[in-house]
Design a protein that fits this description.
eight-stranded mixed sheet; 195 residues; Aminopeptidase; alpha+beta
Length: 195
């Protein structure tokens, strides 16, 4: 089902979606230390060195076999600037299921890069890895990310009530929507969509 790509480099109209390298540490550190960057993310927390820790982990994951984690850099074609990342985490190889995640530098929000990156990684998920289902969890208040998923053809499948803490607080919780996209739905959508 999942292949073993040795080096991943995908291209969209404005983005290169590629493996992270140690050269990305400064860029990732710069955007991951902004408090607003973490507002809707359902992993991690704001802390010094988060970018370096992330890069060290994802570079190590690149050599895993079978490979189940694909954390890729979103890079602007025209400048070479790393502006975020997109992730596929294979959750069930036998059934062809993986989780999607993405994050952008705050100053890149609202330019359509998340939608473009999601389209690029979905093509990889369904046509290279041959996944059957891709799902995502999104903070129920993150209307921009909800729009990205719905624009890509995802269907809202459910609500996980108060499943995540907001920041480091014990008493403040948020809920998450679960969205899913099946391979046959993706193929139908991608036949009618111009990249």
């Amino acid at each position: 089902m999942a292949t073993k790509p040795s080096h991943i480099k995908l291209e969209t109209k404005r983005l290169i979606i590629r493996e992270h390298s140690f050269d990305d540490i400064d860029a990732v550190e710069a955007y991951s230390t902004q408090e607003k960057f973490w507002r809707y993310l359902q992993v991690g927390e704001l802390k010094e060195g988060a970018g370096r820790s992330y890069i060290e982990r994802v570079v190590a994951e690149q050599s895993a076999r079978p490979r189940t984690e694909f954390n890729l850099a979103l890079v602007l074609k025209d400048t070479g600037q790393v502006i975020g990342n997109v992730r596929l985490g294979v959750t069930d190889l036998d059934h062809g299921e993986c989780i999607l995640g993405y994050a952008l530098a705050v100053d890149q929000w609202g330019h359509g890069y998340a939608s473009e990156g999601v389209r690029g990684i979905l093509d990889f998920a369904f046509n290279t890895l041959m996944m059957h289902r891709v799902y995502a969890m999104v903070d129920s208040e993150n209307t921009a990310s909800i729009h990205v998923l719905e624009k890509a053809g995802f269907t809202r499948e459910g609500l996980l009530r108060e499943n995540k803490r907001v920041g480091n607080t014990e008493n403040t919780r948020t809920s998450s929507y679960v969205y899913g996209l099946l391979a046959h739905e993706y193929r139908t959508i991608s036949c009618h969509t111009v990249a």
